[in-house]
Amino acid sequence: MAISPSAYAVDFAKEILPIFEDKCYRCHGEEKVKGELRLDSPEAIMAGGEYGDVLVPGDPNESSLYVLTTYPKDDADYMPQKGKGLSSNEQKLLKQWISDGASFGESFVHGPEPKVKSKFEEANPVNERKYTIMGDAVETVARLHEAGLQVDTVNHDASRFEINYTYAERTAGSFDFGMLADLGDTLVKLTLARTDVTDGDLAGIVDYSNIEHLDLGRTGVGDAAIEHIDKLENLKYLNLRDTNVSDVGIQRLSKLKRLERVYLWGSQATEAGAKRLEKALGEGIVILGAELRGPARRSQRT
Ligand code: HEC
What we know:
The chain contains 10 helices and 7 strands. It is an alpha/beta fold. Bound molecules: heme C.
């Protein structure tokens, strides 16, 4: 991914480091290392924690370092776990810094991203999209905002949109995915984490076949949801953390040849089930979390 310097580039040393110092070091610094994570050097941040990477340059929504600071304060995984949380301005800075490529300044250069392309991906390059956000799209975005949805472009690319329902008030059975129709092919990320979305509601997402990233973490969805999800043939990331999805459901995912990452912490899937899926999908797939079932699994929000 080419990282273009933004006109408002966030300065790590001046703007981000002080936030970590103030709000994170007491548990992720020299003295205490909670979650096997230290945040007091670029190398340590890039090394990640107990569950792997915490920062994905260019992708704030894949960076737990940012995402966990945006959880509701009563969430067991909210960061910082104690003390004053990030202000909305600090959250914005952190998000912007990651979107812009998470530069630590000249003294630290990110290594090349290790990326294994599946054979399917090589043979089937994603079609070029011709859509740009102009004219009508501006209105569409305004309308979605009004409906309580968060709408954003992915990495400032005006032909790739992400929608977040987490803070929109929707009751089970009333997820109105039809209202996203104007985004069509440009909808590539959909976040439904911590909502009341049901298996049945998800029937409405099958038309958005360019979705690459789907977050259903901490919802009540189960195996029936996968009967819809398995039609999203461009799906790369799927978060099923703390859901009721089991081995039966995840086996259906073996159709999705572009899948790169599946999160299963706290779901009903077992390590054996995850291994079977891994085998079916072949090289390049990373399945996280099924082995953490039982006492070691992370706390659930009640
Ligand atoms: C009072 C202690 C405390 C503070 C302050 C704190 N954390 Fe944590 N953090 C923890 C603990 C404990 C864990 C491990 C939780 C677990 O394993 O479920 C953790 C885990 C994490 C993880 C996950 C690591 C992984 O591999 O999954 C991230 C990311 C994180 N913290 C980011 C932050 C950030 C960013 C801040 C500052 C804004 C912060 N934390 C402040 C206690 C704290």
